[in-house]
Amino acid sequence: MNQDDLKRRAASAALQEIERDLTPHAIIGVGTGSTVNFFIDLLADCRERFGAAVSSSNASTKLLKERDIRVMETISVKRAAVYVDGADEVDPSCALIKGGGGALTQEKIVASISDRFICIVDQSKLVERLGDFPLPIEVVPSAQRAVADAMVTLGGEPRIRSGLTDNGNVIIDVHGLAIDDPDEMERNLNNFAGVVTVGIFAVHRPHLVLVAEQDGTIAQRYPN
Ligand code: 5RP
Q1: Does the annotation count 138 as an active-site position?
Q2: Does the N terminus or the C terminus of the chain have fewer Cβ atoms within 10 A?
Q3: Using one digit for the tens of pLDDT, what is the confidence trace for 162-178?
Q4: Buried-state track 75-85, b at ≥16 Cβ within 10 A, e below 16
């Protein structure tokens, strides 16, 4: 089974998992990335069964609208029933690194207003400790040098990503950070002036991680 097959299977498992959330007024939170793109395709077939989607990026909004799924602005959504999104790394406690696609800020916001967060990954995303994947940090442009320098003092190797986020900010990808305590690291990095969002999702851990395994099964992981 290739990686796209696994991503498709994870997306399909998520659709089954949110079956009970598909009610006429329900708002479904939709993440960003290649795994979620499969989920958006599947969600399109159920578009009559829920009220609207709330999206985590301009890219996902475009895909949702192309599939005639109604999209609400985040600012007008009080609560979403469920949020489905991928991840770049998942540790045994279900803490995540996200932001490979640069949408981490809006992703964290939508996760925070959702009753349930379901993360969908293939087994290649499972790690014992977060940090092999460079940690994305979204910062306001004027703070990029200060934050990059601070990451060096923490033992990381910061690289400024080219381009800007949907919010007009900069992403610093920090290589080589050993993230032994994701909760503590997320809190700590959030305190640097100019940091908008840290790509560690520990405070907003998913309630459930669906893992598409190479043997065709879907494993379920819950935060401990
Ligand atoms: C985007 C994200 C994605 O969820 C993450 O990068 C995983 O993407 P993919 O499903 O393409 O592997 O955090 O900001």
Answers
A1: no
A2: C
A3: 999 999 999 999 999 98
A4: eebeebbbbbb
